[in-house]
Amino acid sequence: MSELTPIEIAWAAREDRFLARDLIANIVTDFQEFHGDRAQGDDPAVIGGVGMLGEQPVTMIAINRGDEMAEKLQTRNGSPEASGYRKALRLMQQANKFNRPIITLINTPGAFPGKTAEEGGVGQAIAESIVQSMSFTVPMIAIIYGEGGSGGALAVATANQVWMFEHSIYAMLSPEGFASIMFKDAKRAPEAAELLGLTPQELLAKKIVERVILEGDDRDLFYENLRRDLLQTIDDLFQLGPEEIKVQRQMRFDKY
């Protein structure tokens, strides 16, 4: 487990240690990306499609911060608008129809708070994604690989299991935002990070997440282990049966 302080983990979570497209390429093969929400447009902050995890077809949905500056501007540094969440929901509904497991990859400070997002109905899109996710009868695993901020993350993390990378965070808001509200001083972010309990270790201890993924230096071994663990967990969940998969997810969130 990481020996960094909570604020240091928060800072590390914001670094581009892992990119959405690289994660997809190293988890699945034969990835076919789908575009658009069939209502408003195609948000580049959400990448979604179908690929093969070994012999198992899966739906992959990733929140994308981008790589170069031009892409980061297009994705608003990983802050989806309404069309992004509607695209994600469309693909999850498709996965449920065809009995495909769903894997989501999350790295977002939160949904885009701008005028265009509000006009597009981002709040409703997030709520609809959360509500409908509770009815899916296929295995769903959410992996937070950077920031997991507020409802913007929860919209695609209403899963049977939630995993976190070693240097990631999951919280209702950022340490800086918490410090600004509670202390009227954003410089007290390190203190806020301690209070928020946003680190993987703390969340695992409280049973809010099921697994912490150690990152290490050997990326080949890292991805090999991740693929193996995903396949095993999907197989275990499929043993429950469709209705039990849905109930297990609902009971998981009922505890909170």
From TrEMBL:
<dbReference type="GO" id="GO:0016743">
    <property type="term" value="F:carboxyl- or carbamoyltransferase activity"/>
</dbReference>
<keyword id="KW-0443">Lipid metabolism</keyword>
<keyword id="KW-0444">Lipid biosynthesis</keyword>
<keyword id="KW-0276">Fatty acid metabolism</keyword>
<keyword id="KW-0547">Nucleotide-binding</keyword>
<dbReference type="GO" id="GO:0009317">
    <property type="term" value="C:acetyl-CoA carboxylase complex"/>
</dbReference>
<protein>
    <recommendedName>
        <fullName>acetyl-CoA carboxytransferase</fullName>
        <ecNumber>2.1.3.15</ecNumber>
    </recommendedName>
</protein>
<dbReference type="InterPro" id="IPR029045">
    <property type="entry name" value="ClpP/crotonase-like_dom_sf"/>
</dbReference>
<keyword id="KW-0808">Transferase</keyword>
<dbReference type="InterPro" id="IPR001095">
    <property type="entry name" value="Acetyl_CoA_COase_a_su"/>
</dbReference>
<dbReference type="GO" id="GO:0003989">
    <property type="term" value="F:acetyl-CoA carboxylase activity"/>
</dbReference>
<feature type="domain" description="CoA carboxyltransferase C-terminal">
    <location>
        <begin position="1"/>
        <end position="236"/>
    </location>
</feature>
<dbReference type="Pfam" id="PF03255">
    <property type="entry name" value="ACCA"/>
</dbReference>
<dbReference type="GO" id="GO:0005524">
    <property type="term" value="F:ATP binding"/>
</dbReference>
<comment type="pathway">
    <text>Lipid metabolism; malonyl-CoA biosynthesis; malonyl-CoA from acetyl-CoA: step 1/1.</text>
</comment>
<keyword id="KW-0067">ATP-binding</keyword>
<dbReference type="InterPro" id="IPR011763">
    <property type="entry name" value="COA_CT_C"/>
</dbReference>
<dbReference type="GO" id="GO:0006633">
    <property type="term" value="P:fatty acid biosynthetic process"/>
</dbReference>
<keyword id="KW-0275">Fatty acid biosynthesis</keyword>
